């Protein structure tokens, strides 16, 4: 992405972020009594919390430190709280607006005291929601699938796959979470490990500083560990991220196909955002797979689950994707459901299987309220090499 495009994008995002924070701040200050001593300290606490994420992300570009980590952590939690405070303030304002025209609220609900009570209840509900979402986010589930591909795999009857997407290694997904991921995957005793994009968060510096790549070296799978790029690899710089992952044991597939154990193919697409950041197109699925023998099973990793019919038409047997986070924060999952044919979970189209994972990590807040993070375990069954014969006795 060109510098001026990024500057425009960042300016628009910052403007929206500032407007949302001002809206929340203004309504909160209106709820506090004029003579209240809370207004002064509330103002400064709000400013510090609301600016911490942007400040932390900017400062860590120049110098990583414990101070920038604290700012990013505070700001990340604020992103989730800000979202729910925004929903609460909008709801209150809609009630106030409708009451202006209809006049259905009792007089006792229009007092300053009642406004303070509503603010206190809102604060409790939002903070409780964020805390519960954090507990949910750090306790991923195992999602198990049992699928059959009606093809022979050169004598291989079953393939045990461990798959994860959207790990987002960085400041938030640090050593503890990575150790948990690696131990959980190794506990599945997989034949092969697949990472469907956004392995690294936007900035590689926190990954290097915390030496998170050493966790990846501990992954164990006899058929190897494979990954693809996601949009976040491109946001932070795809080439350094891919180089780092390769140096730490991940075979990165970038519009390439490999045949594993002379039994099946693994194909990996570049992320859909590659043209926007690099100015170069990625291969279409049909072009990527045109020179392979499709009598063998074909597994495709494509980070963003768009245009599933193209994979089906190209003869893909199983596509694995991520990216959506299934909204991450409720009710954003309703938006992702409207955007994607599959926002989360399994779907079969013709002979093609599709699975979209909500991911292991997350972007921004370390909070999930719309779904559970997950590690996917797929038992993939193939046809036997020799057909089974039966003898009919008359």
Entry keywords:
Purple Acid Phosphatase, chain A, domain 2; single chain; six-stranded mixed sheet; disordered C terminus; 45% helix; alpha/beta; 394 residues
Can you tell me about this structure?
It is built from 13 helices and 12 strands. A 6-stranded mixed beta sheet has the order 1-12-2-3-4-5. It has helices at about 5-30, 40-60, 65-100, 110-135, 175-185, 205-210, 215, 230-235, 240-245, 275-280, 285-290, 310-315, 335-340, and strands at about 140-150, 160-165, 190-195, 225, 250, 255-260, 265-270, 300, 320, 345-350, 350-355, 375-385. It has about 400 residues and is an alpha/beta fold. The protein folds into 2 domains: about 5-135, no CATH class; about 140-385, 4-Layer Sandwich (Purple Acid Phosphatase, chain A, domain 2). About 45% of the residues lie in helices and about 15% in strands. The longest helix is centred in the N-terminal third of the chain and has 37 residues, at about 65-100. It is elongated. A hairpin with a 2-residue loop joins strand 10 (about 345-350) and strand 11 (about 350-355). It starts with a helix and ends in an 11-residue tail after the last strand.
Q: Which helices and strands occur, and which strands form pairs?
A:
Elements: H1 3-31, H2 38-62, H3 66-102, H4 112-137, E1 141-152, E2 158-164, H5 175-187, E3 192-195, H6 205-209, H7 213-217, E4 225-227, H8 231-236, H9 238-247, E5 251-252, E6 256-260, E7 264-268, H10 274-278, H11 285-288, E8 298-301, H12 308-314, E9 318-321, H13 333-339, E10 345-349, E11 352-356, E12 374-383
Parallel strand pairs: 1-12, 2-3, 3-4, 4-5, 7-8, 8-9, 9-11
Antiparallel strand pairs: 2-12, 6-7, 10-11
């Amino acid at each position: 992405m060109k510098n001026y495009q990024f500057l425009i994008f960042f300016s628009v995002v910052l403007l929206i972020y500032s407007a949302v924070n001002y809206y929340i701040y203004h309504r909160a200050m209106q709820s506090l009594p004029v003579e209240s001593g809370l207004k002064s300290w509330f103002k400064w606490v709000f400013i510090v919390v609301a600016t911490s994420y942007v400040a932390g992300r900017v400062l860590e570009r120049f110098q990583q430190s414990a101070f920038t980590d604290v700012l990013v952590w505070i700001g990340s939690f604020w992103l989730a709280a800000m979202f729910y405070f925004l929903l609460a303030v909008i709801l209150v304002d809609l009630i106030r607006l409708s009451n202006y025209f209809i006049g259905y609220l009792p007089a006792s609900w229009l007092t300053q005291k009642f406004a303070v009570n509503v603010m206190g209840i809102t604060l409790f509900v939002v903070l409780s929601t964020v805390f519960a979402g954090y507990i949910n986010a750090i306790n991923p589930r195992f999602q198990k699938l049992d699928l059959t591909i009606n093809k022979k795999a050169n004598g291989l009857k079953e393939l045990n796959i461990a798959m994860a997407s959207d790990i987002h290694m960085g400041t938030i997904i640090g050593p503890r979470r990575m150790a948990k991921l690696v131990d959980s995957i190794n506990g599945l005793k997989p034949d092969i490990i697949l990472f469907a994009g956004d392995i690294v968060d936007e900035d590689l510096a926190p990954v290097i500083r915390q030496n998170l790549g050493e966790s990846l070296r501990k992954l164990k799978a006899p058929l190897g560990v494979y990954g693809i790029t996601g949009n976040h690899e491109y946001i932070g710089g795809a080439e350094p991220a891919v180089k780092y992952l390769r140096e730490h044991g991940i075979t990165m597939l970038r519009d390439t196909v490999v045949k594993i154990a002379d039994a099946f193919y693994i194909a990996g697409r570049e992320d859909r955002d590659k043209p926007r950041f690099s100015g170069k197109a990625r291969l279409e699925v049909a072009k990527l797979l045109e020179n392979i023998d499709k009598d063998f099973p074909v597994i495709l990793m494509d980070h963003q689950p768009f245009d599933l019919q193209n994979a089906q038409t190209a003869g893909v047997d199983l596509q694995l994707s991520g990216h959506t986070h299934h909204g991450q924060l409720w009710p954003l999952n309703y938006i992702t459901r409207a955007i994607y044919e599959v926002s989360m979970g399994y779907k079969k189209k013709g002979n093609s299987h599709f699975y979209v994972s909500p991911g292991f990590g997350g972007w921004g807040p370390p909070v999930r309220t719309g779904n559970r993070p997950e590690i996917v375990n797929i038992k993939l069954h193939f046809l036997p090499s020799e057909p089974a014969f039966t003898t009919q006795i008359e």
